[in-house]
Amino acid sequence: MDVYLYGQTLLSSINLLNEKYPEPDGYAEIKESYSLPGGETINAAIVLSNFGYRTKIDGPFLGVKTKDPLIVYFQKFNVDYSGLHYDSTFDGVQDLVLIDKNSRTVFGKFQKYFSDGTKRWTAPDKAAIQSAKIVSIDPFFGDESVLAAKYCVELNKQYAAIDCPYNEFIHQRSAVNIISNEYIQNNYPKENAEELFHKYTGASDGLVVFTFGSREILFGRKNSPVKKIIPYKVNVVSTLGAGDTFRAGILYALLNKFDDEMTVKFAAATAATVCTKFPMALNPPALDEVRNLARNNH
Length: 298
Hints:
By secondary structure, the chain is α/β, with parallel strands linked by helices. It has a single domain (about 5-295), classed as Ribokinase (UDP-N-acetylmuramoyl-L-alanine:D-glutamate ligase, 3-Layer(aba) Sandwich), CATH 3.40.1190.20. The protein contains eleven helices and twelve strands. The chain has helices spanning about 40-50, 65-75, 110-115, 125-130, 145-155, 170, 180-185, 195-200, 240-255, 260-275, 285-295; strands spanning about 5, 10-15, 30-40, 55-60, 95-100, 105-110, 135, 160, 175-180, 205-210, 215-220, 225-230. The longest helix is centred in the C-terminal third of the chain and has 16 residues, at about 260-275. It is globular.
């Protein structure tokens, strides 16, 4: 195994709109609709598998409405899903996504999923972490996500994280932590971005990356100046999955021991390439596409 990914995988009902997302009481025409894998973990796994890496996903239970449709795609992309548990009393994790050219709006039941007292996810697989070259961890599974990070530290495995606080263990021991604009706005709405960035770099020896959609990406490390790059300009069809696949680019860079600047550029190129496709799960980016974009635009 090359990459063990512990985090969210779900079934998404994806709808691409003809025009912009409508105002309240407005109307929008749906251009295309699909039922496809969604979530930070499976989207990253699909891209890495398409790049030729062996991936294993773990975390949320499969449910009655999600098991069979998801397994079709796990098998198509040769993603190892053997660690996922099936719960016949549970529908499975699902969401509804509406997408226009510049945004995606998600409707789900995640608050209920994470707050009803029932843990419908597996503990991380220590043996799988030990056999992997690198690891990806979502912070959303509470103590189990922290346990995955502690296993990585114990076994001397690098891991990439996303959207977790700077004062918590997952961030503090990560090789890379990617913080999205959405997370910043929801959790640190009054913080200056660069001041917050220094709080993150000060709490970890790893690489910190702040993403802001089409605006400048911030990246850097402890005791170093903030570095910035502008995301690649492409003909955007859909931004769905861009953040998830940015992490796939980070993981590819870790596997190939890129320096920090090339790591962020490759991740940005991966996300930009995904933005030219819809839906990504039916047409994931090829490695040559990403390499060419990274090579020719910076």
